[in-house]
Amino acid sequence: MIFKRVLGITSALIVTLGLAACGGTETEDSATKSIGEQLDYKIVGIDPGAGLMKLTIEDALPEYGLDKWNVIEGSGAAMTAALKKAYDKEEPIIVTGWNPHWKFNSFDLKYLEDPKGVFGGAEDINTIARLGLKEDHPDAHLLLDQFNWEPADMEEVMGFIQDGTDPVDAASRWISENEDLLSEWTKGVNNVNGEELTLLYVAWDDVIASSHVAANALESVGYEVKLVQVDAGPMWAGVADGSGDAIVGAWLPTTHAVYYKEYEGKFEDLGPNLQGTMQGLVVPAYMDIDSIEDLKE
Question: What distance in Å separates the CA atoms of residue 17 and residue 139, rounded to the nearest whole number?
Fold first, then answer.
């Protein structure tokens, strides 16, 4: 059985897609249509390199027998723009979603139940360091090993960024308001004099937030940090080949499982810096649908 994807969709195009057959007031025609018919069997996704996309396309669709459904590839920003457009009009929409994410603070959303467990349970976000970082930069290694926060902390930074604050300024603001956590992260860490570090990150809202906060913490003890945005594969490859010093946005054990397995033995896993994440298919709470299995109707 072949499952199709709509490739190369731009942000602007996703926003303008006719994702629903009805607006806030249902017509008689739309009321008789299934969710699939209303949405033209489209799920709004994110970038094609994301593990969540792989799980949706290669696992969830075939496991639930959703052979009519397609997943639109785009970006996190395009997904949230499409979600906002539909939400403002109370139209139906299904997106690939995860939290921590600011959209759960901005909209009343719910995960579709996943009785087959395709998307797994809660994941952790781990810090991954290149081999030799502890020997080359022991104080950076210690700080990154002690870097740990809660989903609510991350969502606060994400909220600043979503409201228009530059990620660098958002991280600085959050750090200034949470010096107690900074003190925990820098406990036992010596000040350095301009040693250079490179952090790699993907352009996901949560990873943008965590990477800039980690960079700010490292800069507070004297490091010069270069933040380099790449796709998920190159992010892991960069740490494995030593061109990047660390990443703080490794979703495990599911989302980045393929990269973890591919490069295992070529990096150091410092463990979770955040616990209690979730991912799956997300819809507005006003939609009368509760389970992925309902999409077969």
Answer: 49
